[in-house]
Every structure is written in structure tokens, then in C-alpha cells.
Amino acid sequence: MKNIKLIDIPKISDPDGRGNLSVIEKTIIPFDIKRVYYLYDVPSDSSRGGHAHIKLQQFLIALSGSFDVVLDNGNQKQTITLNRPNKGLYIPQGIWRELDNFSAGALCLSLVSDVYKEEDYIREYNDFLKYIMR
Asked: Which residues form the Sugar 3,4-ketoisomerase QdtA cupin domain (predicted)?
């Protein structure tokens, strides 16, 4: 799917074995961050998302555990499993997304390109199909 991409987040390993550090700077993701939120304590049989955005761009990271991101552009679907804190998923505007299959203790960090605006959400799948077919 065009423009959706997994992006490596630089990982700095401590030479003394004290763990790793990852840094997200301006050059890592293709937008300025306007909002940050995170999902946690999501039951494994639940899903999140279930919407698309008109303008907003998003970057998802599994800081802990794992989850699947089901992406849909109206013509094809793709599932990407996020399970490493040094890999992020860039989702441009106009893509339907659902997050599911959360592992125990999963923590999903979301970096987004704008503040919350309800008018930017497409919450019904049929409305999404109409929007992308215009």
C-alpha cells in the first residue's frame, strides 16, 4: 500500500549491558508531532481504531508487547504486526485502520500530526469507501 511504511527508530545499545535507548527526532517521521497518546490495558479480544482520517497522519510504536494493525485503502488490506520498540508504522491520511490481537501488557504509542478534531475522523466504513471513491 502506497506511502505506508515501517520505519526503523535508531537504537543505541549500552556497551555495559544496561539496556537500549531509542530516539525519535524530526528526521525520523514525515510530519511535525502535534499530539501524543498511548493505549494500554487493552483486552486481547478487543480492537481499537476502526476509523480513517481525512488529514491526520499517524506513527504507531509497540513500546511493549505486540498488536496487529489492519490497514485498508479501500482496494486491499494488509496486516502488520508491531512488536519491537525500535520500529514504527507510518500511516498517512485516507487509510482505514484497526488495531487488534493485543498481547498481555501491550503498550501502543501514537504520535500524530494534529490535535484532536472530530471532523477529521471517518468512523463508518461505508462512509470511508464513499470518501476514497470521490
From this structure: 3-131
